[in-house]
């Protein structure tokens, strides 16, 4: 897997590890683009904490800042990094599925042979 995909996936996983950041993402997903002040009104998190979380989410590429009215910055979700993380997990799952499938086949054959002997 290319290192850039792993690096993007790592940033996404680090960002998603914190429940407050997941709450910010969920609020943006359900309510659309919002300012830090808007998010603070919707969530039980201080405006200062939301600003820090949004900065980390922006660093991970999960949100993007856009100019709003009266020089207020609104944050919007970006799905591209999440899609990269999903691709990373899908590749990892495929790597696990093959050996686990082979093990299951072996166990099924062994169980079938044991019944014939009995």
Write the layout of secondary structure elements.
Layout lengths: L2 H14 L2 H13 L4 H7 L4 H13 L3 E5 L5 E5 L2 H38 L1
Antiparallel strand pairs: 1-2
Helix pairs in contact: 1-5, 3-4
Explain what the structure shows.
The protein is mainly alpha-helical and 118 residues long. Helix content is 72%, strand content 8%. The protein is built from five helices and two strands. The chain has helices at 3-16, 19-31, 36-42, 47-59, 80-117, and strands at 63-67, 73-77. Strands 1-2 form a two-stranded antiparallel sheet. A hairpin with a 5-residue loop joins β1 and β2.
Pairing-aware structural class of the strands and helices? mainly alpha
| Overall form | elongated
**Which strand order spans the largest sheet, edge to edge or round the barrel?**
1-2
Total number of helices: 5
Low-confidence stretches: none
What is the overall pLDDT average? 88
User: Mind telling me the C-alpha Rg?
Assistant: 22 Å
Query: What kind of sheet is the major sheet?
Result: 2 strands, antiparallel
Number of strands: 2
What is the element string, with H for helices and E for strands?
HHHHEEH
Strand coverage percent: 5-15%
Distance between the termini: 47 Å
Q: Which bin fits the share of residues in helices?
A: over 70%
């Amino acid at each position: 897997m290319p290192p850039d995909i792993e690096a993007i996936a790592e940033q996404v996983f680090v960002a998603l590890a914190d429940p407050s950041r997941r709450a910010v993402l969920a609020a943006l997903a359900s309510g659309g683009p919002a300012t830090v002040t808007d998010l603070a009104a919707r969530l039980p998190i201080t405006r200062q904490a939301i600003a820090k979380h949004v900065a980390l989410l922006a660093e991970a590429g999960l949100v993007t800042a856009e100019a709003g009215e009266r020089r207020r910055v609104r944050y919007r979700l970006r799905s591209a990094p999440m899609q990269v993380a999903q691709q990373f997990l899908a590749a990892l799952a495929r790597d696990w599925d093959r050996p686990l499938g082979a093990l299951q086949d072996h166990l099924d054959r062994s169980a079938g042979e044991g019944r014939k002997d009995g």
